[in-house]
Amino acid sequence: MSSNTKQKAELPDKQDLEAMSNFRYELRKFLRVSEEISNAAGITTLQYQLLLHVRGFPERKWATVGELAERLQAAPNGTAALVSRCEATGLVTRKTDKTDRRQVQVHLTAKGERCLLRLAAQHKAHYGSFSWVFGASEA
Which biological process, per GO, is one annotated for this protein (predicted)? Predict the structure, then answer.
C-alpha cells in the first residue's frame, strides 16, 4: 500500500469529525466554567489544578513537584514556581521526604483542603455527561 493510500484510509469521516467537534466543544465549555469557578474563588485554574492533583494523587494525600509537573503537563521549574505561589497564599506546604531527602513533598494546608473541596464540589456539578470521571453509577 502506498503512503498516499494509507493516508487516505486514515482520514476521519464526517461522523469522526462531528464526534471530535462535539468533544472539543464540551471540553471548552467545561474549561470556561472551571475558569469562572476558580477566578470567583480568587485563584487561577492552574492553582486549582495543582490542589486537585496534590490531593487526588493515587494512594496518598501529597505529591512531589515532578509528579505534579507530569500531571499538569508543565516544566518542573514552572511547577515549582506555581507551588511557591500556592505556598505564599497558604494553600500548600512543602515537606522534605523522610526516606529520600532529595524529594520534596507538596501537601495541602487546611486552607488549601477547604478551598479544594469547595471548588471541586462546584466542578463536579458541571461534569454532566462525563460519567466516566466518577463511574457510570453517578451519571
Answer: response to stress
Phi, psi of 93 (to 5 degrees): -135, 150
CA distance 73 to 11: 28
Residue 60 grid coordinates? 496518598
Query: Cα(first)–Cα(last) distance of the chain, in Å?
Result: 44
Tell me, yes or no, whether 138 lies in a domain: no
Overall pTM surpassing 0.85 (yes/no): no
CA atoms within 13 A on the CB side of 107: 12
Q: Are 124 and 134 in contact (CB under 8 A)?
A: yes
Classify residue 21: in a domain, yes or no: yes
* Gap between the Cα atoms of 71 and 53, Å rounded: 7
Which residue bears the cell 480568587? 42
Is beta strand 92-96 parallel, antiparallel or unpaired with respect to 62-64? Answer: unpaired
The answer to whether 76 and 69 have CB atoms below 8 angstroms apart is yes
The tens digit of pLDDT for each residue in 2-26 reads 555 555 668 999 999 999 999 899 8
CATH of the domain at 76: 1.10.10.10
